[in-house]
Amino acid sequence: MSSAPVGIVHLSDRAPQVSGEQMVAALIPPPQFDGATFETYRADARFPLQQEAKDLLIAFSGGGAPAARGGLFRRAKKSPEVKPGVYLDGGFGVGKTHLLAAIYHAVPARRKYFGSFIEYTALVGALGYQKTVELFRGADLLCIDEFELDDPGDTMVMTRLLGELVPTGTRLAATSNTPPNALGEGRFAAQDFLREIHAMAASFQTIRIDGTDYRQRAVDGHAVVVTAGEYERDLADAAASGLVSDDAFDTLIRHLATVHPSRYIRLIEDIAVIGIRDVAPLDDQSAALRFVAFIDRAYDAQIPVRATGTSLDQVFTDDMLAGGYRKKYLRAISRLVALTHS
């Protein structure tokens, strides 16, 4: 029996390759949601929409609430229509991915898939559109986490793909993010989603989930920064029992440009702690978006991060946070804060 790898490696030395078959096999909930169920979702009593969403999704997962029984001569009430798709609209950290995974686990289906939006679009890129359609045709359920609306091309590819699958019986569940406390924006996220996938709008029931970011409830508002000495000690301690990565921030950012985002999960395979030295603000939006995708995969895998230099929640400039990718950056900041506190 082989032991788990230990020591320190550099992510910049890794050049992972992923086949279409491996990408398909990876379409399951992240490890942190292996046991996610509706029972383990703790609705916050201060936000009644959370319990309402949970109840609606239980009905969706079971094919709809049962019709109420009538008396001997009374007609039973009809069950409300259950659409083939649900869209969970809400801020960061309110449990949307937990609920999405709970749907996946609850639906008694043989063929079901769970992946991020970028994983599905990467699969189309790897296999081609028609092969992807054939792969998913006949699937019972597709769960799509973090449905992205900022790339018109990718959005329309996904819309077309889903449009071919729904008539064959495939059910859909999707999430996306609305920045918390964003005046005006929050109430229009669902409308943005339905407008962008207009051909599929009638297939989705929008379910709003309000609340506060659970990651921020447990920690303070900034990512942890360690000193150079603390960094060396933390990585050495972790490397005694597991595999640890150690990269300069600028080197890691440059390397991410050479790896397709669909392979980032393989880039951090077997890593127990991610070490990043000399963090500095990013000045290139493409690099920033790649870093967001990298952090998404690190968060899915729940890999702690140790970093020196600038606080990781400060790497995105004000211009970036005010631009069209604001939702992505805010989500990444929330996750970076959580990972540095792990």
From TrEMBL:
GO biological process, one term: cell division
InterPro entries: ATPase_AFG1-like, P-loop_NTPase
Keyword hit for Manganese: no
Record-given protein name: Cell division protein ZapE
Entry keyword set: ATP-binding, Cell cycle, Cell division, Nucleotide-binding
Gene3D superfamilies in the record: P-loop containing nucleotide triphosphate hydrolases (3.40.50.300)
Gene (UniProt): zapE
Gene Ontology molecular functions: ATP binding; ATP hydrolysis activity
Family annotation (SUPFAM superfamilies): P-loop containing nucleoside triphosphate hydrolases (SSF52540)
GO cellular component: cytoplasm
Keyword match Aminoacyl-tRNA synthetase: no
